[in-house]
Automatic annotation (TrEMBL):
This is Antibiotic biosynthesis monooxygenase. It comes from the Bacteria.
């Protein structure tokens, strides 16, 4: 039986445009693999704006308990990567937690 996600955990961070191409591979190598090992799914997005670049990571979880086990505590607390302070314009203070109300699988 396939477990469906009921929770999306969303992290956002922004860099200056001149460091975005360095931060992206770092985020892919250091931030994404730990999520891929335990979450039901992970997506990474990049939005290049005129002077800054936004990165958004969405991970999908079966429930709050699974997410809390991964974060070892408060699921909205941000666990910064070692080099985030070097790359990010400011360190995000929280994670967004959203209940999934509609999944495209429900529409098929």
């Amino acid at each position: 039986m396939v477990t469906k996600p009921t929770i999306a955990r969303i992290w956002r961070g922004r860099t200056r445009r001149d460091v975005a191409n360095s931060y992206e591979p770092y985020l892919k190598a250091e931030g994404i693999p730990p999520l891929q090992q335990v979450a039901l799914g992970v997506q990474l997005f990049r939005e290049d704006r005129e002077e800054e670049t936004w990165f958004t990571t969405i991970s999908y979880w079966p429930d709050i308990e699974a997410m809390t086990a991964f974060t070892k505590g408060d699921p909205i607390k941000v666990h910064h990567l070692d080099r985030d302070a070097e790359f990010l314009m400011e360190l995000p203070e929280r994670i967004e937690i959203h209940r999934i109300l509609v999944d495209d699988q429900d529409l098929r």
